[in-house]
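WARN retry 2 of 3 for item q-0093 after timeout on previous attempt; input resubmitted unchanged.
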Amino acid sequence: MIESVGTPLMWGVFGVVVVTALALDLFVFHREAHEVRFREAAVWVAIWMSLATAFGFWTWYEAGAERGLEFFAGYLIEQALSVDNIFVFIIIFKYFGTPPEYRHRVLFWGILGAVLLRGLFVILGVALISQFRWILYVFGLFLVYTGIKILRHSEMEMDPAQNPAIRFLQRHLRIVNHHEGQKFLVRQDGKLWATPLLVVLLVIEATDVVFAVDSIPAIFGVTDDPFIIFTSNIFAVLGLRALYFVLHGLMNKFDFLHYGLGLVLAFVGMKMLLSQWVHIPIEWSLGVIVALLGGSILISWFFDPKKKPPA
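OK item q-0093 returned
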């Protein structure tokens, strides 16, 4: 049986922080539909990162240095993997022609749904590992494979027209061909119709399930504590919405980030595969993750392969 450091007090503090921040975000600062500008989004990125950092240090104080470092490692992994989510969000919004002023509302409810789905994934993962310890090796092999796959492809490809979730929704839902403000459903001729916003929301939820298949096993590679896995994952997911509005105009600046992501997943996968024979301290793991991600970001920022050399 896997033991957790999460006491009722720690779970309670986590719940209060998350619910309060979400309520302020939706019902105070973003009550009216408007296009989220860079400066506003940057402030919210800083808020979510500050909350995650403070919670990580509080976890360190309550549960010890090892658990605190595990929280930060899990948080960094999930934040890095979120960049792929953002890339897909950009494609989905462009494909459906979602007006900029409605994107925050879609992402808010999409992220809220992702929180519930991630919770289910964590519970399932913990249950599987508790009963079948060998499942860690399956996770490890999957992460190594995924890391190599990312290293071999410089760009993430997605054709919305071929997305099975979109094709399923188009066949089974009555969808109006125009937006009705921020509404997800409208009533016409006594029948409920879905608006394009609902379709976008459902596609984003389906996409998050796919990404969770990568991110949840990756965090099991640095800790098996359910409290650390869930809280670090959720803090990263909750900050994803604001991160989208900051990064959507800068995605072409991260040409080498996929190398860092691929190496991190491969490293975590190998750590899981060798865990029975080789123990890598969490301090070293966190250092490797920071070095790989930070290095790929710095190289991307200062070296642009698209620039032509001077004649």
